[in-house]
UniProtKB/TrEMBL annotation:
<protein>
    <submittedName>
        <fullName>ABC transporter permease</fullName>
    </submittedName>
</protein>
<feature type="transmembrane region" description="Helical">
    <location>
        <begin position="311"/>
        <end position="329"/>
    </location>
</feature>
<dbReference type="GO" id="GO:0022857">
    <property type="term" value="F:transmembrane transporter activity"/>
</dbReference>
<dbReference type="GO" id="GO:0005886">
    <property type="term" value="C:plasma membrane"/>
</dbReference>
<keyword id="KW-0472">Membrane</keyword>
<feature type="transmembrane region" description="Helical">
    <location>
        <begin position="126"/>
        <end position="146"/>
    </location>
</feature>
<keyword id="KW-0812">Transmembrane</keyword>
<feature type="transmembrane region" description="Helical">
    <location>
        <begin position="70"/>
        <end position="87"/>
    </location>
</feature>
<keyword id="KW-1133">Transmembrane helix</keyword>
<feature type="transmembrane region" description="Helical">
    <location>
        <begin position="241"/>
        <end position="271"/>
    </location>
</feature>
<feature type="transmembrane region" description="Helical">
    <location>
        <begin position="99"/>
        <end position="120"/>
    </location>
</feature>
<comment type="similarity">
    <text>Belongs to the binding-protein-dependent transport system permease family. FecCD subfamily.</text>
</comment>
<dbReference type="InterPro" id="IPR000522">
    <property type="entry name" value="ABC_transptr_permease_BtuC"/>
</dbReference>
<feature type="transmembrane region" description="Helical">
    <location>
        <begin position="283"/>
        <end position="305"/>
    </location>
</feature>
<feature type="transmembrane region" description="Helical">
    <location>
        <begin position="153"/>
        <end position="172"/>
    </location>
</feature>
<dbReference type="GO" id="GO:0033214">
    <property type="term" value="P:siderophore-iron import into cell"/>
</dbReference>
<keyword id="KW-1003">Cell membrane</keyword>
Length: 338
C-alpha cells in the first residue's frame, strides 16, 4: 500500500467515526438539534461558554442518557472489532471471531445464572464477564494451546461452547419467568447505559487492547509461517496465547455490558483488510475506529427505527452483517479456488 493511500484510509476511518458519533448524539426522540448539542458539549469545557439557552431537560437527556450510550456503543464496537481482528490473526482465518472459543456461550451462561438468581445492577455484567473468561480458559486447557494445532483449539472452543449452551438451556428449563429478560440480554442492548456502565469495562478494555496492539508486528510475522517466525527468534505458541488472552479480555469486557452482539468481530476487520491491506499494524487500530463507528450507527438505528420502542442491537448488526458475511464467504471461496 502506498503512503498516500494509507493516509487516505486513516482519514476515512476517523471521518467515519466522527460522523457516526455526531449522528448518535443528535438523532433521537428529544428536540435537541445539532446547534443545541454543540452548545451543551462546548459548555462542558472548562472556562468556555457557548451562549444560548438549552432546556434543562434536554441537557440532562444529552449528558446523562444519550452521550454515555453513544460512547459505550463506540467502546463496545471497538473492542469487538479489535478482538475479532486479533483472533483472525492468530488463527489466520478471516471467518473467525472472539466467540469461536466459547466466550459468547460462557457469557450467556453467566448472565443467565445471574438473572435467574435475581441479581440486579452490575451483578449481571460481572457474571457474564466471568462466564466468558471461564469458557475461553476451559477451551485453552482442552485445546492445549501451544502443543497442538490451531484447528484443534478451534474444535475445543466449539465443544466448550456447546457445553455451556447446554448448561444455559438446563438453567432456563426451571426458570420460565426469567425467559424474557434472559433473551433480551442475549439479543444485545445498550438501553439504560450510563457513565457507570461506561467506566466498568474500561480497565479490562485497556489491558486487553494494549496486549493485542502490542503484538501487531508479531502477528504479521506469524502470518508468514510458524517456522519462519521461530527462525527469527519469536515464540509462536506464546504469541498465540497472549493475543488470545488479550482479545478475550477485550471481548468479554464488551459483552458484559452489551449482551451478545454478532458480526462486528468478523465483518469489520475483513472490510478494513480489503481497504488497508493485511498488515496487523494497520488492521488492528483501523478495526477499532471502524468498529466503533459501525456500532454507534447500529445502536442509533436500534433506538430510532421503532421509536419509542427499541430493536435489540444484535438484530440490527445481524441484519447489516449477514449480507456482508455471505460476501466474505463467497470472496474467500473464490480466493481459495484461485
Amino acid at each position: 500500500m502506498t503512503h498516500r493511500r494509507g493516509r487516505l484510509v486513516w482519514l476515512l476511518a476517523v471521518a467515519f467515526l466522527l460522523a457516526a458519533l455526531a449522528c448518535g448524539v443528535t438523532v433521537g426522540a428529544s428536540g435537541l438539534g445539532p446547534g443545541e448539542v454543540f452548545r451543551v458539549l462546548v459548555d462542558q469545557l472548562p472556562g468556555v461558554h457557548a451562549g444560548g439557552a438549552v432546556d434543562p431537560v434536554d441537557r440532562a437527556v444529552l449528558l446523562q442518557i444519550r452521550l454515555p450510550r453513544v460512547l459505550l456503543a463506540a467502546l463496545v464496537g471497538a473492542l469487538l472489532a479489535v478482538a475479532g481482528a486479533g483472533y483472525q490473526g492468530v488463527f489466520r482465518n478471516p471467518l473467525v471471531d472472539s466467540s469461536m472459543l466459547g466466550s459468547s456461550a460462557g457469557a450467556g451462561l453467566g448472565a443467565t445464572v445471574a438473572i435467574v438468581a435475581g441479581a440486579a445492577g452490575l451483578a449481571v455484567p460481572a457474571a457474564a464477564f466471568a462466564g466468558a473468561l471461564a469458557a475461553v480458559a476451559l477451551a485453552l486447557a482442552a485445546g492445549s494451546v501451544g502443543r497442538t494445532s490451531t484447528s484443534t483449539l478451534l474444535l475445543a472452543g466449539v465443544a466448550v461452547g456447546l457445553f455451556f449452551s447446554a448448561a444455559q438451556t438446563f438453567v432456563l428449563q426451571g426458570a420460565t419467568r426469567s425467559l424474557q429478560e434472559v433473551y433480551a440480554w442475549l439479543l444485545g442492548s445498550l438501553a439504560g447505559a450510563d457513565w457507570t456502565h461506561l467506566a466498568q469495562p474500561l480497565p479490562y478494555a485497556v489491558v486487553g487492547t494494549a496486549v493485542v496492539l502490542a503484538h501487531a508486528r508479531r502477528l504479521d510475522v506469524l502470518a508468514v509461517g510458524e517456522e519462519e517466525a521461530a527462525s527469527l527468534g519469536l515464540h509462536p505458541a506464546r504469541i498465540r496465547l497472549l493475543v488470545v488472552c488479550g482479545a478475550t479480555l477485550a471481548a468479554a469486557a464488551a459483552v458484559a455490558v452489551s449482551g451478545l452482539i454478532g458480526f462486528v468481530g468478523i465483518v469489520v476487520p475483513h472490510a478494513v483488510r480489503r481497504l488497508a491491506g493485511v498488515s496487523h499494524v494497520r488492521v488492528l487500530p483501523l478495526s477499532m475506529l471502524v468498529g466503533a463507528g459501525f456500532l454507534v450507527l447500529a445502536d442509533t438505528l436500534a433506538r430510532t427505527v421503532l421509536a419509542p420502542a427499541e430493536l435489540p442491537i444484535g438484530v440490527v448488526t445481524a441484519a447489516l452483517g449477514s449480507p456482508l458475511f455471505v460476501w466474505i464467504l463467497r470472496t474467500t471461496r473464490s480466493g481459495g479456488a484461485s
